[in-house]
Amino acid sequence: MEAASDNKDLIWDLDNFHQRQRAIDFVMGFENRLCVYSDSVEQLYTNYNIFFPKEEDRRLVILPNPYAHHDIFHNLPAEAVTATGLNIIPGDMVGKEGLYLLIPFKGGKTRYRAVPLQTGLRVINQKRPTDQPLLPVLKKGDLRELEAKTPCLHLHCIHLKRLTLMSTLEARGIQSVIVERLKDIN
C-alpha cells in the first residue's frame, strides 16, 4: 500500500483557512464516516485516520489503515466520481445545532436551502432511482471555508453504473459501506 506522501490526493492544504482550528475540528467529526476518493490512484478509502503532522505544516494528511487492505476499493475511474453541489455545514451557520446539508436551488432568490443532514440525504435518495443512490464521498479540495469563517465539506458522489471494471458484488460492497458509514453522521 502506498504511503500518504506518495499519494498527493491524501494531503490537503489548510493554509488558506482563516479559521483553521475550526476547520480541523469540523473535519475530524467525519473521520471514517465519509469515504475518501483519490483520483490519482483510482481508489476509495473507507478506513483511515486524519493526522496533522508538524512536519507537514498546515496540512491535513489522510492515512489509510495499513491493517485493513480490504477497506480499500481499487479501480474506481475518475469519471465515476462527480461533484454534487451539496455541502455539509455546521448548524451554527444557520442558527441551529447539528449538521446541515446545503442543497442548491436552481432559480429564485435563495441560492441554497439548509436542511438537517440526515433528512436532506433521505429526501434526495427518495427522489433518485433506487439503482442510482446518492453515495457521497470526499476528495482533495472538498474541505472548504464559507465566508472566510465557516468550514464546510463539499460532497462528491460515486455513480455505480460507471464502475465498469468492477463486479456487481464489488459495486454493492462500495454502496453498502458508504450507506452504513452515513448512518453514523449526526
Compressed to H and E, one letter per element, the order equals EHEEEEEEEEHEEEH
Backbone CA Rg: 16 Å
Biggest pleated sheet: 9 strands, mixed
State the low-pLDDT regions, or none: 1-5
Total helices: the number is 3
Number of beta-strand segments: 12
Mean pLDDT: 90
> What is the terminal separation in angstroms?
31 Å
Overall, the morphology is globular
**What percent of residues adopt helix (DSSP H or I)?**
10-25%
- Beta content comes to 25-35%
Number of domains: 1
* SSE class: alpha+beta
Explain the overall architecture.
The protein is α+β, with helices and mostly antiparallel strands. It has one domain (4-182). The protein has helices spanning 20-28, 117-127, 168-182; strands at residues 11-13, 35-38, 43-45, 48-51, 59-64, 72-73, 81-90, 99-104, 112-116, 136-138, 143-146, 150-158. The strands form two sheets. Strands 2, 3, 6, 7, 8, 9, 10, 11 and 12 form a nine-stranded mixed beta sheet that branches. A three-stranded antiparallel beta sheet has the order 1-5-4, with no helix packed on it. Strand 11 (143-146) and strand 12 (150-158) form a beta hairpin. It is 19% helix and 32% strand. It is globular, with a radius of gyration of 16 Å.
